[in-house]
């Protein structure tokens, strides 16, 4: 007789053991992680980026253990049918896990819509997920050529651009957002980003002020996070629909 333990992540599919993403946390109720929907949020362990403004640094290591088994998550979700609209996968970076597709398929069998928050660093994995997603929250961190300065991941800008292009060609609902901090992104950076986003077909862009909660970088915490109205007007020449929050 098998016993379900909190760290158990594997399930049997076609007589093979499949290791699902480590569940680093579960938020039972959210109104902000999938706009217009009431959803649960599953946080996955692991992210290759080392962004200075990260507020979930505990989720960066790829070898963290699950706080609950996948069967426990699915069992709980089954009790939420009719009460929640959707399930959102966040991280960390969920697409680092190839087995995320299987997890999403299982959630879909319960009748939930599925949202994904991603930085787009794994375009092939992301492309495989797109047919099963209902909404994507996509982080665009900087001009593509400057990505390694933010993420500390060589070549990350090209991968993100590829993921963006795949997403835009899929016609899925999405939100593209950028974290604003004057220490990290200059006005010139934002103007360059607006041009790059326009060139690949982006018409909606959220500029979100840096949130110091969970951030350990003292320079950023003490810094300036506002964006001038004149600059926003300039950015709207390229991307007409911009929201600052």
Automatic annotation (TrEMBL):
Q: Does the keyword Oxidoreductase apply?
A: no
Q: Which CDD domains match?
A: Radical_SAM
User: What keywords sit in the KW lines?
Assistant: 4Fe-4S, Iron, Iron-sulfur, Metal-binding, S-adenosyl-L-methionine
InterPro entries attached here?
Aldolase_TIM, NrdG2, Organic_radical-activating, rSAM, rSAM_sf
GO MF term (any one) = 4 iron, 4 sulfur cluster binding
Needed cofactors, names only, are: [4Fe-4S] cluster
**Which segments constitute the Radical SAM core domain?**
32-245
Which PANTHER family would you find in this protein's record? GLYCYL-RADICAL ENZYME ACTIVATING ENZYME YJJW-RELATED, PYRUVATE FORMATE-LYASE-ACTIVATING ENZYME
Q: What is this protein called?
A: Anaerobic ribonucleoside-triphosphate reductase activating protein
Q: Which organism is it from?
A: Acidithiobacillus ferrivorans
């Amino acid at each position: 007789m098998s016993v379900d333990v909190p760290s158990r992540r594997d399930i049997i599919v076609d007589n093979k053991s499949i290791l699902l993403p480590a569940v680093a946390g579960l938020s039972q109720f959210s109104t902000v992680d999938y706009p217009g929907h009431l959803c649960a949020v599953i946080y996955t362990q692991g992210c290759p980026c080392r962004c200075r403004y990260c507020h979930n640094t505990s989720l960066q290591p790829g070898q963290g253990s699950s706080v609950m088994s996948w069967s426990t998550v699915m069992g709980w979700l089954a009790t939420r049918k009719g009460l929640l609209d959707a399930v959102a996968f966040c991280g960390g970076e969920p697409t680092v896990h190839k087995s995320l597709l299987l997890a999403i398929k299982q959630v879909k069998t319960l009748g939930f819509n599925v949202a994904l928050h991603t930085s787009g660093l794994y375009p092939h994995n992301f492309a495989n997920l797109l047919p099963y997603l209902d909404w994507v929250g996509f982080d665009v961190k900087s001009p593509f050529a400057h990505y390694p300065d933010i993420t500390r991941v060589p070549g990350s800008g090209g991968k993100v651009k590829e993921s963006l292009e795949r997403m835009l060609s899929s016609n899925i609902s999405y939100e593209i957002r950028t974290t604003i901090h004057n220490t990290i992104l200059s006005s010139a950076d934002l103007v360059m980003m607006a041009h790059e986003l326009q060139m690949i077909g982006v018409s909606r862009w959220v500029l979100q002020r840096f949130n110091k909660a969970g951030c350990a970088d003292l320079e950023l915490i003490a810094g300036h996070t506002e964006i001038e109205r004149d600059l926003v007007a300039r950015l709207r020449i390229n991307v007409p629909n911009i929201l600052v929050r």
